[in-house]
Specification:
The complex is a heterodimer of chains A (288) and B (267). Chain A is built from 14 helices and no strands. Chain A has a domain of 161 residues: MetI-like (MetI-like fold, Orthogonal Bundle), CATH 1.10.3720. Helix content of chain A is 77%, strand content 0%. The two termini of chain A are 37 Å apart. The radius of gyration of chain A is 26 Å and the shape is flat. By secondary structure, chain A is mainly α. In chain B, β5, α5 and β6 form a beta-alpha-beta unit. In chain B, strands 1, 2, 3, 4, 5, 6, 7, 8 and 9 form a 9-stranded mixed beta sheet that branches. Helix content of chain B is 38%, strand content 21%. Chain B has 2 domains: 156 residues, Periplasmic binding protein-like II (D-Maltodextrin-Binding Protein, domain 2, 3-Layer(aba) Sandwich); 102 residues, Periplasmic binding protein-like II (D-Maltodextrin-Binding Protein, domain 2, 3-Layer(aba) Sandwich), CATH 3.40.190. Classes of the chains: A mainly alpha (288), B alpha/beta (267). Chains A and B meet through α13 of A and α3 and β6 of B.
């Protein structure tokens, strides 16, 4: 690339333009061992989406969406997914910090156990929730005796089921960021006299900001799509525990067209929310 | 797994013994389809995929074991679930050989989609109230389910057990608001056995199959409602000969006695 390797016959501008052309080509060209699987992966992921758009009952859409149960389910889905994300943030971020920073024997076991819902089939998640927080569950029984409150079949139950499934997504995302965060800043703040809580609030948390947002978005999306744990723990009742995925499942047995329409609505809403979050995330990213 | 299979066999044997005691064994005067004599059926083999209503789980598991025993080399694979959901799967092209539905409505759906022809009714079932063994809400009669303090689980309205339960409430002029509408009858039963609800409306056969895990509260015959169970070999059955043989087995006298032993009524 230096002037010494230049073949003598070529003039400098000609050679420069040839290099530029080759660079542009190599930037654009994708080697086929990557390109073909990439294309197949994209097709595989997009084909169901295309199917949804092609088969959507566009003409019947207003009739189906005017059904109050659909709006109830949508409202419930958004509400519960947001509540589950909020709970995950409030309780999951401190847990992630503890997992990342607390150096004691057995912490890795705890980490493996609390992220178990990631690999657990959600229906099993619902069953274990019943065994813990159900009316006959080890904790739910006490709750029922002391307060008369039972969680299954309530909207709170939906939030609990979704939090159980979604929180681990936040925890692993944020824990990684806590580990990667530069401890130098925290130490500097501490030597300047900041308390540990102040350090966490003003230094550590901003450092992991992008991961926090990514984790929150991930758990919100997971909570929005939650089905197995919800139907097992919270049951299925329109307006109270029937979220969109449950409504889709029930509709599929009864009125498949409505199921497609509901799926479409859920898809549009999730894309809209994720896109708006992404925009905000990117702009704050460039501004800061 | 092994233990549950054992329990099931024990229950099956007990059921057969009971049936033997109760009635003079000529129960199933098999309606349509002449069933081939079991011994001389030539060379049936392969897997039969049977899509069956959730309420048929215990009875059909036994029938499947009998079938596999009489036809070595065959394997009966079950997909138990809500009849409405199974019908949707079949019309969407699921590779099923036999469909046994808990209502004629869902079978008609499959026939209408040209996935089956000439289904035969092989059993019927009525509803019963299932309560946890401790009966926490002290449910003793149907009208107790209308009380707001009583937590009731029902099947969702599209599933045969939901439709039939709704008929019962209409007949009894009761308004029952459940806490949950489950996807199939076994899901209702699970919520009862876990003690999460005070009562569930299921089939009499489910109460019997659950054994000591639930208690049954009988619904009076004058307000009870029933549903019919049709079965059909599917037109696109990948393994048609064996599929038809299994259907015939369900419709045979032997099949009928297993069903009767489990509490099913004649169609």
């Amino acid at each position: 690339m230096t002037s010494q390797d230049r073949p003598p016959a070529e003039s400098e501008p000609a050679q420069r333009s040839r290099h530029a052309a080759r660079a542009a080509q190599s930037r654009g060209a994708i080697p086929w061992p990557l390109g073909i699987p990439a294309l197949l992966a994209a097709l595989f992921l997009l084909a169901p989406l295309a199917g949804l758009l092609v088969r959507a009952p566009w003409l019947g859409l207003p009739r189906i969406l005017a059904d109050s149960q659909v709006l109830d389910a949508l409202r419930l889905s958004l509400l519960c997914a947001s509540a589950a994300t909020a709970l995950s943030l409030v309780f999951g971020v401190p847990l992630a910090w503890v997992l990342a920073r607390w150096q004691v024997r057995g912490i890795s076991v705890l980490r493996a156990l609390v992220t178990l819902p990631l690999v657990l089939p959600p229906v099993v998640g619902g069953v274990v929730l019943l065994l813990a927080f159900g009316r006959q569950g080890i904790l739910g029984r006490l709750l029922d005796e002391w307060t008369g409150i039972t969680l299954p079949f309530t909207t709170a139950g939906v939030v609990i089921a979704e939090t159980f499934i979604a929180m681990p997504f936040l925890i692993i995302t944020v824990e990684g960021a806590f580990r990667a965060a530069d401890r130098g800043f925290e130490e500097a703040a501490a030597t300047l006299g900041a308390s540990r809580l102040t350090v966490f609030r003003t230094v550590t948390l901003p450092l992991v900001g992008p991961s926090l947002l990514a984790g929150a978005v991930l758990s919100w999306a997971r909570a929005l799509g939650e089905f197995g744990a919800t139907i097992t723990f919270a049951g299925n009742f329109p307006g109270r525990t029937q979220t969109m995925p449950l409504a889709v499942y029930v509709a599929l047995e009864n009125d498949p067209e409505a199921a497609v329409a509901l799926s479409l609505v859920l898809l549009v809403v999730s894309i809209a929310v994720l896109a708006s979050l992404r925009d905000r995330w990117l702009t704050t990213g460039t501004a800061g | 797994m092994r233990r549950s299979a054992l329990t099931l066999t024990t229950v099956a044997v007990a059921g057969l013994l009971l049936a033997g005691c109760g009635s003079s064994s000529t129960t199933g005067t098999s309606s349509a389809t002449p069933s081939a004599p079991v011994s001389s059926t030539p060379a049936l083999s392969g897997t039969v995929n049977v899509f069956a209503a959730a309420s048929l789980k215990e009875a059909f598991t036994k029938l499947g074991q009998q079938f596999e025993a009489t036809h070595p080399g065959t394997k009966v694979v079950f997909n138990f679930g809500p009849s409405s959901g199974l019908a949707t799967q079949i019309t969407a092209g699921a590779p099923a050989d036999v469909f046994a539905s808990a209502s004629t409505k869902n079978m008609d759906q499959v026939v209408k989609a040209a996935a089956a022809t000439s289904p035969t009714n092989f059993a019927s079932n009525v509803m019963e109230i299932a309560v946890p063994p401790t009966n926490p809400a002290n449910v003793t009669q149907l009208s107790d389910l209308a009380k707001s303090a009583v937590k009731v689980a029902l099947c969702q309205k599209a599933v045969p057990c939901g439709v039939t339960a709704a008929k019962v409430f209409t007949k009894a002029k009761l308004t029952v608001t459940p806490v949950t509408q489950e996807v199939d009858v076994k899901a209702v039963l699970t919520k009862v056995t876990l003690g999460e609800v005070d009562a569930g409306v299921v089939y009499v056969t489910d109460v019997r199959a659950a054994g000591a895990k639930v208690k049954g509260v009988v619904i009076p015959a004058d307000v009870n409602a029933s549903t019919k169970y049709p079965i059909a070999t599917l037109t696109k059955a990948p393994n048609k000969a064996t599929a038809q043989a299994f259907t015939d087995h369900v419709l045979s006298a032997d099949g009928a006695s297993v069903l009767t032993a489990d509490g099913f009524a004649k169609p």
